[in-house]
Design a protein that fits this description.
By secondary structure, the chain is an alpha/beta fold. The chain contains 14 helices and 24 strands. Bound molecules: ligand EPZ.
């Protein structure tokens, strides 16, 4: 298994570039199943999670090709509506094929996703919504079997704001007869991006950017070409790297509106920010100030930046409190950061982070995607050398993170294992 060996490297400076958003591309790939023919997605990075979904789409009968940041998906011949355990267990977002398959083929058999390092992560909201649209759902031998002759539009009230359930239901409802209304829908930029893609294909979805979405069912959808939005979590990770640096860093190709909750917190921590087109320059403060964080659905502070922000707070001048209300158990990185001599105490889902003068390099282990990114940032600011093992987690969602960070002055070496 590959490892990163990271030497203390806090003097970052220059430009670092953001790739397309993994969490917008995954549903876009699944949505391509809805429009028979060849769709093309652009600004697609080379990520393990995207390869896993491409593999699943091929199993289902689609033709998927990837070259130079462009992915083409030809879904003319999709005929095998099954997502096997081997693929779903590798990546939970495989559940995104459920809605499109039931909508287009009238049935789907999708392995039930298990838990993962960030919590239990149920899919009950996805299933309830599909049932409300008229599908019958049976769980058998670890598989979700869903069937529907024809889905029928209805009102659906989500108990909780869920990105995945909102997107899956949108994709199921585009072909449903009549009107579907989704209440308490998620408003993440990745939901908006999926709405844009579906509408471009010919769907009729209104209410984008609000918690109430209305979908008028249509009879046909057509393949499209679309440029994918920049990854706000990768951008946020690099902005936090800049806040931890001793010199200004410019993160290029961001969508500022997607990053507002983080930008406010960076200012609170003492950073100055400058904007030019799609570029954001972060100038670090002499002394990082403590800032409290409460993760919430968008437009609240994103859970996917909680671990990375915690690293920033490890070096703040005082105590900060970090609470994750989206995934309350998402604190696997805390024990690893404490191995680097951070001073973090957990009380249920609240981390109290007492800033220290410096972190000290050690061997640590990545547990999930964003925790791994946090450990890379921590390794860069820690004195001496830090080894991060199990970095396959980071390759799932960051394209060549070490090359990108090294281009602005980090000293990260990949040891192939
Ligand atoms: C998406 O996961 C992202 N994944 C996650 O990013 C992200 O952390 C999360 O949204 C929150 O922003 C992808 O986009 C592929 P949710 P998702 O449904 O859709 C509960 C990363 O690192 N819930 O919005 O699975 C759930 O347990 C990943 O890139 C139910 O109770 O998240 C959580 O508490 C990790 N029942 C809350 O809702 C359900 O049926 C929000 O989860 C579904 C969710």
């Amino acid at each position: 298994m590959d490892k990163f060996i990271i030497e203390h490297s806090r003097e970052l400076s220059g430009n670092i570039y953001v790739s397309g958003a993994k969490n917008a591309i995954l549903p876009a790939m699944a949505a391509c199943l809805l429009a028979p023919g060849k769709s093309i997605l652009r600004n697609v990075p080379n990520l393990i999670d995207l390869k896993t979904l491409a593999h699943l789409l091929r199993v289902i009968g689609a033709r998927v090709e990837y070259e130079n940041g462009s992915m083409s998906i030809d879904s003319k011949d999709v005929c095998f509506p099954e997502a096997p355990y081997e693929l779903v267990s590798k990546m939970r977002a495989s559940i995104y094929v459920l809605g499109p398959l039931v909508a287009r083929l009238g049935k789907a058999r999708v392995s039930f996703p298990g838990g993962c390092a960030i919590g239990t992560r149920p899919v009950d909201l996805h299933l309830k919504a599909l049932e409300a649209l008229g599908a019958t759902i049976e769980i058998e031998h670890g598989y979700i079997n869903a069937k529907a002759e024809k889905l029928v539009g209805t009102d659906i009230h989500f108990d909780k704001s869920s990105v995945g359930a909102t997107i899956n239901t949108l994709m199921a409802a585009v072909y449903a007869s009549g009107t579907t209304r989704l209440f308490n829908a998620a408003m993440e930029p990745e939901v908006d991006s999926t709405i844009d893609l579906l509408n471009k294909m010919g769907a009729q979805i209104s209410g984008k950017g609000t918690t109430t979405l209305e979908i008028h069912g249509v009879d046909d959808l057509f393949p499209v070409e679309m440029n994918m939005i920049p990854d706000r979590i990768e951008a946020g990770t690099f902005l936090i790297a800049g806040a931890l640096s001793t010199k200004p860093v410019t993160v290029c190709g961001c969508q500022k509106e997607h990053l507002m909750p983080l930008l406010d917190k960076l200012r609170e921590a003492g950073c100055s920010l400058a904007f030019s087109g799609q570029d954001i320059t972060v100038t670090p403060p002499d002394q990082i100030k403590p800032v409290n964080i409460l993760t919430l659905p968008h437009p609240g502070f994103p859970t996917d930046l909680q671990a990375q922000f915690t690293v920033l707070m490890c070096l703040a001048d005082g105590v900060s409190y970090i609470e994750d209300t989206v995934f309350p158990d998402r604190f696997m990185h805390v024990a690893e950061l404490n191995r680097l001599q951070a001073n973090i105490k957990m009380d249920r889902n609240v981390a109290s982070v007492k800033g220290v003068e410096k972190l000290s390099g050690a061997e640590v282990m990545a547990t999930d995607l964003r925790a791994s990114a946090a450990l890379v940032l921590a390794g860069m600011v820690a004195e001496g050398s830090t080894t991060v093992s199990r970095i396959y987690h980071i390759d799932r969602g960051y394209d060549r993170i070490e090359e990108k960070l090294n281009s602005i002055g980090a000293k990260i070496q990949r040891e192939i294992g």
